[in-house]
Amino acid sequence: MSIILMGIKHCGKSTQGRIISKKLSVPFFDTDDVIFEMTGKTPRQIYTELGNEGFQEAEEKACSFLLEKINSSAEKNAVIATGGGICGNKKALDVLKKIGTFVFLKTPERIASFRVLREISVAQDGTILNVPAFIAKKNPRSVADAKKIFHDFFIERECIYEQLADVVIDMSSSSKEANAAKIIESVSSKV
């Protein structure tokens, strides 16, 4: 059974995925990397050029590719880090459900907000730069606006992830290694 990591942007999915894959000696995949390998474009570029529908189609194709790859391997196990918006892509989720266990990496809002908002910068003319697409589409006029938009987004997404998850891991108070061990133990007890 594969481990499928999900959660808000910058919650540690890729970091945990790499640690867990090493501990279990199984392959690690990041759906955003698979999308790039398949299209030559980053998820952000696809989203900007083709909108949400085009991005979700690319994400579903990446997940279908992983399903085939994992099913054709001898071990049939892997660790997969998903993009932060996978929770809104039913077709991709349906594919991933055939692969393994959904693990929600629950990160405190203050940590997630800091990690997302630290990338934002403000140009001399006041233009906000490096804003994630899910915030940019709400047209924030300031970093404070972006923070409020993120708060609302975080609350909504956390509820969705909790409903989808087979396992919920609180990522707030442990080291990376300890969190990886918690994830492995929790998934093992589910199988």
Automatic annotation (TrEMBL):
Extract the InterPro entries matched here: P-loop_NTPase, Shikimate/glucono_kinase, Shikimate_kinase/TSH1
**UniProt KW Cytoplasm keyword:** yes
A GO BP term here is: chorismate biosynthetic process
* List of residues binding substrate: D32, G84, R157
Keywords in alphabetical order = Amino-acid biosynthesis, Aromatic amino acid biosynthesis, ATP-binding, Cytoplasm, Kinase, Magnesium, Metal-binding, Nucleotide-binding, Transferase
Listed binding positions for Mg(2+) are S14
Instruction: Please give the pathway this protein is involved in.
Output: Metabolic intermediate biosynthesis; chorismate biosynthesis; chorismate from D-erythrose 4-phosphate and phosphoenolpyruvate: step 5/7
Cell compartments where the protein resides: Cytoplasm
Summarizing the function annotation, the protein's role is:
Catalyzes the specific phosphorylation of the 3-hydroxyl group of shikimic acid using ATP as a cosubstrate.
Concerning PANTHER family, the annotation shows: SHIKIMATE KINASE (PTHR21087), SHIKIMATE KINASE 1, CHLOROPLASTIC (PTHR21087:SF16)
This one is known as: Shikimate kinase
Q: Which gene encodes it?
A: aroK
